[in-house]
Write a structure and sequence with these properties.
14% of the residues lie in helices and 36% in strands. By secondary structure, the chain is mainly beta. It folds into two domains: 36 residues, Ubiquitin Ligase Nedd4, Chain: W (Single Sheet); 119 residues, Nucleoside Triphosphate Pyrophosphohydrolase. Strands 4, 5, 6, 7, 8 and 9 form a six-stranded mixed sheet that branches. It has a three-stranded antiparallel sheet with strand order 1-2-3, with no helix packed on it. It comes from Flectobacillus rivi. This is NUDIX hydrolase. Keywords: Hydrolase. GO terms for molecular function: hydrolase activity.
């Protein structure tokens, strides 16, 4: 954000509460502060017919597959949001099994709220997705950021202890 959404003046950096913040330079009249709070995102470990669904976004490289995720919408609970996302992205009806956990994703300034979802129906990908994989829980190698840590925690609760995927050695989180 470069300009104040209240008065239009160019924002300046200042330290407040020990952090860099964007401020309106006209503190006496406007007083706007851009706090840059994290954005809530919901994520699903989707279990369908005994396997986990990983999907590839149309904007990603051919080897990247991950959990179903989406932004939480205004007025929506995280539970409502993740059921909506599973329906929108995969056309599956979902039921929440458990909250897996909360995970920071600093690079995107997001707070990820991850769930395990059991889903039913026939998969139909949304226009955002171009492919999906079906994997047994023990076949998934967690990745070292964001939703990958949710996968690792979910697997550990089930006695599965896979090494974290090393992007420097392989091209796919499911390669052997």
């Amino acid at each position: 954000m470069k300009f104040c959404p209240q008065c239009g003046k160019e924002l300046v950096y200042k330290i407040k509460d020990g952090r860099d913040r964007h401020f309106c330079p006209d503190e006496s009249e406007c007083g706007y502060v851009h706090w840059n709070n994290p954005i809530p995102v919901v994520a699903a470990i989707v279990e369908h017919e005994g396997e986990i669904i990983l999907a590839r976004n149309a904007a990603w490289p051919a080897t990247w597959y991950a959990l179903i995720t989406g932004f939480l919408e205004s007025g929506e609970t995280p539970e409502e949001g993740i059921i909506r996302e599973v329906k929108e992205e995969l056309n599956l009806d979902g039921e929440i099994v458990e909250l897996v956990g909360l995970y920071e994703f600093h690079r995107m300034n997001q707070l990820i709220i991850a769930y395990h979802i059991k889903a039913t129906g026939s998969i139909q990908l949304s226009e955002e997705l171009v492919d999906y994989k079906r994997l047994k829980p023990e076949e998934i190698k967690p990745w070292p950021a964001g939703t990958g840590r949710a996968v690792q925690d979910w697997q550990a609760k089930r006695g599965i202890f896979n090494e974290m995927f090393d992007f420097t050695k392989s091209s796919s989180a499911t390669d052997e």
